[in-house]
User: Which sequence fits this backbone?
């Protein structure tokens, strides 16, 4: 018997004594899906420089291969999120990207338009003071709906780099109207079974105002747009000290929590690995999601949330960085599944602050690695994906095959 198996038996006993449905938790852990960001494999860096990695993905085909290798070891990432400007053939086609991904066992997940890299976007995209730029952006949006169809996806994730750098630079209320009109054009172009996930970010690349600056702004736009529009929460896009789990709980309750870009905001943006310096925050977010999934009033929204990583691996190898982030996310989710919900509800109802907090923390303090190992082994994986990756020989293989590996995308 392996060590993790003995540890699993002890954990299962502890959980049974707490009245936790271990098999139910296991099946939810196995069913979790986390989209891999095509743009996080390969080289990336900060605006100060890029440290190149041996064997880094050179193009979309390498990126798909890398994502397939990650899925081989983690088993919960059969989907690759895409950025339209970076995941296209040299002659502008998307069909072959989808086909190759499918050959490698991956579906294309959330499709992200790109309204921040072209020269025309200096003063914004749909927020630009120039009508021709706004129209060109809308044309790009409509094209992204076609691309989303071609990629076999149902979700478009929109992040706008729009904003201003100087007081007086532009008329703020007018920009708000332009942003709505642009998003409405995108929304109206979508198929009825598509979802628009609207991301917000309070700074960068504009620093005086950001047009979609926070969840309130995103929620307001989504409410006006309609049922197919939901808020996308990027963990890196909040002020220090913001209570993200509270935001998530409110968005779920409003039926407007659409998806996550998972990462860690210690870099501000160009984000670090999810769940590294803030595992408690990630747990508390999943606690809100699991709690909502058990309530018939909110279950559909909670269960429909799309999880993506949105990261940039600047000093760690991107493959291992992504695998580690997936594992950290699984850890947070697993712990949230083990909260004694009835006991917590009773403590809350009786105003027992200490017991309520202790009950939540009792789940957080569990070592869930044996449970995760069991879920992986049950589904034909190695109990430790990092070990599986290191022993699999993929890194050495691509390092020799991808000589002169170059180009990196922008991360997170
Ligand atoms: C912006 O910082 C962002 O979080 C958006 O999601 C972009 O699509 C992504 O990063 C680009 O890496
Ligand atoms: Mn993001």
Assistant:
């Amino acid at each position: 018997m392996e060590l993790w198996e003995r540890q699993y038996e002890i954990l299962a006993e502890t959980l049974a004594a707490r009245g936790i449905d271990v098999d139910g938790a296991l099946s939810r852990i196995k069913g979790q899906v986390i989209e891999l960001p095509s743009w996080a494999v390969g080289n990336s860096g900060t605006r100060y420089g890029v440290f190149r990695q041996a064997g880094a993905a050179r193009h979309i085909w390498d990126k798909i291969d890398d994502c397939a290798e990650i899925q081989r070891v983690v088993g919960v990432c059969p989907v690759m999120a895409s950025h339209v400007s970076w995941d296209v053939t040299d002659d502008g086609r998307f069909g072959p990207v989808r086909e190759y991904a499918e050959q490698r066992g991956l579906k294309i997940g959330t499709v992200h338009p790109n309204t921040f890299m072209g020269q025309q976007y200096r003063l914004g995209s749909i927020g630009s003071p120039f009508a021709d730029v706004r129209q060109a952006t809308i044309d790009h949006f409509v094209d992204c709906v076609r691309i989303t169809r071609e990629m076999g996806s149902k979700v478009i994730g929109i992040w706008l780099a729009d904003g201003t750098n100087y007081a007086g630079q532009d008329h703020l209320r007018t920009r708000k109207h332009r942003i709505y009109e642009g998003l409405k054009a995108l929304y109206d172009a979508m198929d009825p079974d598509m979802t628009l996930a609207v991301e917000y970010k309070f700074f960068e690349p504009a620093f005086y105002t950001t047009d979609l600056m926070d969840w309130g702004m995103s929620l307001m736009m989504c409410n006006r747009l309609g049922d197919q529009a939901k808020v996308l929460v990027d963990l890196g896009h909040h002020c220090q000290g913001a209570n993200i789990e509270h935001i998530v709980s409110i968005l779920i309750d409003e039926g407007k929590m659409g998806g996550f870009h998972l990462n860690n905001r210690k870099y501000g943006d160009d984000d670090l690995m999810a769940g590294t310096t803030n595992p408690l925050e990630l747990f508390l977010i999943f606690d809100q999601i699991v709690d909502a999934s058990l309530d018939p009033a909110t279950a559909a929204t909670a269960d429909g949330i799309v999880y993506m990583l949105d990261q940039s691996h600047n000093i760690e190898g991107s493959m291992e960085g992504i695998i580690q982030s997936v594992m950290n996310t699984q850890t947070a989710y697993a712990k949230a599944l083990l909260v004694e919900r009835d006991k917590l509800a009773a403590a809350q109802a009786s105003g027992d602050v200490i017991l309520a907090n202790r009950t939540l923390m009792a789940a957080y303090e569990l070592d869930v690695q044996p449970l995760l190992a069991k879920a992986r082994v049950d589904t034909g994986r190695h109990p430790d994906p990092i070990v599986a990756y290191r022993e699999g020989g993929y890194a050495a293989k691509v390092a020799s095959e991808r000589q002169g590996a170059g180009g990196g995308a922008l991360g997170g």
